TrEMBL record:
GO molecular function: DNA binding
Listed SUPFAM superfamilies: C-terminal effector domain of the bipartite response regulators (SSF46894)
InterPro entries: Sig_transdc_resp-reg_C-effctor, Tscrpt_reg_LuxR_C, WH-like_DNA-bd_sf
Lineage per the UniProt record: Bacteria, Pseudomonadati, Pseudomonadota, Alphaproteobacteria, Rhodobacterales
One record GO biological process: regulation of DNA-templated transcription
Alphabetic keyword roster: DNA-binding, Transcription, Transcription regulation
UniProt protein name: Response regulator transcription factor
Record domain HTH luxR-type: where: 106-173
Gene3D superfamilies recorded: Winged helix-like DNA-binding domain superfamily/Winged helix DNA-binding domain
Keyword Transcription: yes
Keyword Transit peptide attributed: no
Length: 179
């Protein structure tokens, strides 16, 4: 199995045939946080291309669900999450790109976070290190890391800095940088 990050999605689309010829026994899996990238693969795969053989690994799931999907993939099964079909993008390639994008402002996604995750995110937005956050909130560093991982997934961002920007924008009451 070869797992490809969504950051390399375009390269995978351009080179899938060559890769499949070179690695004939390999199963290709796209690991994604942004469902739109995965939906593009599905739309292109509908035209009978080599992309139709790609499986998908959502990186925004709870760890137990994520591991279950990974086990399926390791066993050679193909996996395509339902969420990739449940959107305006599934209407087809003629759908307007604006309709396929997430129109919820990033700051409103904070409602998905637990109270503890918001506490951790507040400290992250102040530039504090994990060990400092752990000491202040009476948590282990590992727990702080798990909270940060979950926040990144729930907010649909790529790292703690983007999560902090989302938090600060919410605190300022705007979509832009904080006051």
């Amino acid at each position: 199995m070869i797992i490809i990050s969504e950051s390399l999605a375009e390269e995978l689309q351009n080179n899938i045939t060559v890769l499949q010829e070179k690695f004939t026994q390999a199963q290709f899996v796209l690991a994604y946080r942004n469902p739109e990238i995965a939906r593009d693969f599905i739309l292109q795969g509908q035209h009978g291309t080599a992309l139709a053989k790609i499986s998908f690994l959502p990186m925004t799931l709870e760890i137990d669900r994520w591991m279950a999907i990974l086990r399926l993939l390791v066993c050679g099964e193909k996996y395509v999450p339902y969420e990739l079909f449940d959107s305006p993008a599934s209407a087809g390639p003629d759908a307007a790109p604006e309709a396929r994008r997430n129109t919820v402002p990033p700051a409103s996604k904070l409602a998905k976070l637990t109270e503890r995750e918001l506490q951790v995110l507040s400290s992250v937005s102040e530039g504090k290190q994990n060990k400092i956050i752990a000491a202040e909130l009476a948590l282990s560093e590992h727990t702080v890391k798990l909270h940060i991982h979950n926040m990144i997934a729930k907010l649909g961002v790529n790292n703690r800095t983007e999560a902090a920007i989302c938090y600060l924008a919410d605190q300022s009451g705007a979509d832009g940088p904080p006051r």
